[in-house]
């Protein structure tokens, strides 16, 4: 059996479901513990661990041969539990139980929760990317205004971009070139670390999807106004299939191996002299905006990977 840990109305999951040839269950963490039952029994007889997702039959853990863990929602506590201390305790206990459940699933994961968590950390990504031989931009991540000023001043005007670790809805921050106004506010860096990177001029951007050992690279040619960040200009961009140089492909697979990722969506820039510069990898990154425009069979590859591992598990 294949377990997909995600949430309803997820287009990326729905597309993969169309191609799966094995029994599959979708589990939304937001249903636990309010609407999902967990049973883990240990003693003199054999261990027995199972859970029953909302509206579905009980699932013994040994039946699960492959898990796709993708963009989960927070745990959902019973609304009847209103006391703040009680809710905190229930959340803590539920988190511990659910984490233990994940570790008890000795099967193929795309991606293991721990790998997913560590893999999305930008400092670790860049550290490992350099170690495996990928080119990365000159980067400074700091909460020291003096260090930020020194990094920016060492480069021509327009030669540095700033970016956030995460673009949260409550405080959106786009990736942008550092301006004179930004320089005037550099003292604010002391409030929270900021990522500064040398701007990488590019002939094109790449979105590179890795599904275990398969690589699907898409070239993105954007309008000039989106030269800093292609994402706002996806609608007008031109997409085409792209083949990574062998050495870049090998280094990217090594990055995935070091980070413990079976799936990842990476962004690269290809400079005018042909250098492939790695920017970041997103362990739960989207693929449809690229695969739908290039015709690359990413949903089929994910489904085939999960099905293959489920069969090999012998369930």
UniProtKB/TrEMBL annotation:
Q: Which GO terms describe its cellular component?
A: cytoplasm
* Lineage: superkingdom: Bacteria
Sequence ranges assigned to domain ATP-grasp in this UniProt record: 126-307
- Molecular function terms, GO-annotated: ATP binding; metal ion binding; ribosomal S6-glutamic acid ligase activity
Q: Biological process GO annotation list?
A: SOS response
Print the keywords alphabetically: ATP-binding, Nucleotide-binding
Pfam families in alphabetical order: ATPgraspMvdD
Under what name is this protein listed? ATP-grasp domain-containing protein
- Organism name: Marisediminicola antarctica
């Amino acid at each position: 059996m294949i377990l997909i840990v995600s949430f309803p109305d997820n287009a990326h999951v729905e597309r993969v479901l169309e191609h799966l040839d094995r029994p599959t269950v979708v589990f939304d963490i937001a249903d636990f513990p309010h609407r999902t039952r967990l049973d883990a029994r240990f003693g003199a007889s054999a261990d027995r661990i199972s859970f029953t997702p909302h509206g579905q039959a009980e699932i013994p853990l040994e039946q699960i041969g492959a898990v796709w863990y993708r963009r989960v929602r927070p745990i959902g506590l019973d609304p009847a539990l209103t006391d703040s201390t009680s809710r905190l305790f229930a959340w803590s206990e539920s988190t511990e139980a659910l984490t233990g459940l994940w570790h008890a699933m000795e099967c193929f994961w795309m991606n293991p929760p721990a790998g997913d968590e560590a893999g999305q950390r930008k400092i670790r990504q860049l550290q490992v990317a350099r170690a495996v031989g990928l080119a990365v931009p000159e980067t400074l991540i700091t909460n020291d205004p003096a260090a930020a000023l020194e990094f920016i001043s060492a480069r021509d005007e327009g030669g540095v971009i700033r970016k956030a670790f995460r673009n949260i809805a409550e405080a959106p921050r786009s990736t942008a070139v550092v301006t004179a106004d930004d320089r005037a506010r550099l003292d604010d860096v002391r409030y929270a670390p900021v990522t500064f990177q040398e701007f990488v001029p590019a002939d094109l951007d790449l979105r590179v999807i890795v599904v275990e050992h398969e690589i699907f690279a898409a070239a993105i040619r954007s309008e000039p106004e989106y030269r800093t960040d292609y994402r706002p200009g996806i609608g007008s961009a031109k997409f085409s299939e792209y083949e990574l140089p062998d050495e870049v492909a090998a280094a990217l697979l090594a990055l995935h191996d070091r980070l413990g990722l079976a799936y990842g969506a990476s962004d690269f820039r290809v400079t005018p002299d042909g250098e492939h510069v790695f920017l970041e990898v997103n362990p739960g990154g989207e693929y449809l905006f690229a695969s739908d425009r290039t015709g690359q069979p990413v949903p089929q590859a994910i489904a085939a990977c999960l099905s293959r591992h489920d069969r090999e598990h012998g369930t």
